[in-house]
Amino acid sequence: MKSAASLPMSPALAVVTLAFLLGIQPVTTDLYLPALPALTTGFGAQMKHAQLTLSALLLAFGCSQLVLGPLSDRFGRRPILLWGLAAYVLAAIGAMLAPSMLLLIVWRTVQGAAMGAAVMSARAIVRDLYPPAEGARVMSRALTGLGIIACLCAPLGGVVSDGFGWRFALLLPALFGAATMALIALRFNETLTRRNPDALRPATLVSTWSTVVRNPTFLSFTALTTAAYAVLFTFLASSSFVFIQVLGLTKTQYGLVMLWNSLAYIAGTFLCRRWLTRYGLRGCIARGGVLTLTGGTIMGALALGGVQSTFAIVLPLTLVMLGHGIHQPCGQTGAVGPFPQAAGAASALNGFVMMLAAFFIGGWLGTHMDGTVRPLAYGMWFWCACIAAIAWTLVQKFGEPRGG
Predict the structure, then answer these.
(1) Nearest residue to 344 (alpha-carbon basis) of 226, 212, 147
(2) Quick one: which of 103, 158, 217, 268 could link to 34 by a disulfide (CB 3.0–4.6 Å)?
(3) Which 8-state DSSP code applies to residue 351?
(4) Distance of alpha carbon 361 from its chain centroid, rounded?
(5) Distances (CA, A) of 321 to 265, 266, 302, 318, 328
(6) Angle at Cα 347 formed by Cα 346 and Cα 352, nearest 5°?
(7) What is the mean pLDDT of each run of 10 residues along the chain (404 residues)?
(8) Could you tell me the pTM of the whole model?
(9) CB count, 10 Å around CB of 360?
């Protein structure tokens, strides 16, 4: 077990680096959301095709991690990050210049695959540097940074889209990716101390993946992170259409909704650290489940009663996002906790399952958006109930990750 003093990076630099690597996901998914209706109209496309710019990106994001995880266990985190971020920047530029919806989907898919290098490596880096309990606190700090980045994404995307057009909203991720690549190139020191020369051998891959997916701690925390991301993705994939086209908000007003959403998430990460100290990992997650289920139930009940307004979504969503700030840092570190020698592979499998769920949710939303708030509210209600059930059963029984 490494102490903070012996880490190859200072603790502060480690948190900043992790925040940038994890923050690339909201930059990629949130920043263009205010422009999504205008983008759809500009290409003369259908809503289901617009949804593919998000769901195909996330499917590629999940699948790429299955390859990138073992690659990082074999060659280290740094080279995978540099190559992945370079590909991300090129794909973001391609998306900005795309002449058709089809080519936009193609470039966004490439962008998602490249994004996998950043997010997968971030989760693996936490396991390289910290034991599971401490890793949850560090991940919570990094996700606070992600929340700050997310705070800026939708408002900035709305302002840029209104002032310069939706293509400029697609260019901003390229700038963020370039800045992150510069940080890695100039300041990041390799965190994987023992590379696995056999990590890419088929027999080793099968054995590693089999070990990971049969571990009840991994399965419990992966179920938690998948349901938690399903809640978030249900909101992300449908919110711009609901708030702008159904409820009549401007792009700037929608950006402010997303800002409030991110602030609630940041508050959740602070609450997570407080509760981890007081109640431990399982107690923290159980209390987060109360917040999540309460918020989801209020939102679903209001929609069921025919209430269709901005506040009927935003107020209960605040509780849901407080819970999200608890479940993601605890769940992501818990999933890789049992695997100090295969953190890349475990992180990759965890990410793959989350993004596979997101892809199918995107497909469902693309065919069920009906001009009301109900698909958003009912979808979030369902996944909130799943989170609570997992937090109160599987995590309580199996959720104490071991490893050192």
Answers:
(1) 212
(2) 158
(3) H
(4) 15
(5) 5, 9, 18, 5, 10
(6) 100
(7) 48 87 89 79 77 84 86 90 96 92 93 92 84 76 82 80 83 94 92 81 84 91 94 86 87 84 89 90 93 96 92 94 91 82 79 84 78 90 96 88 46
(8) 0.77
(9) 12
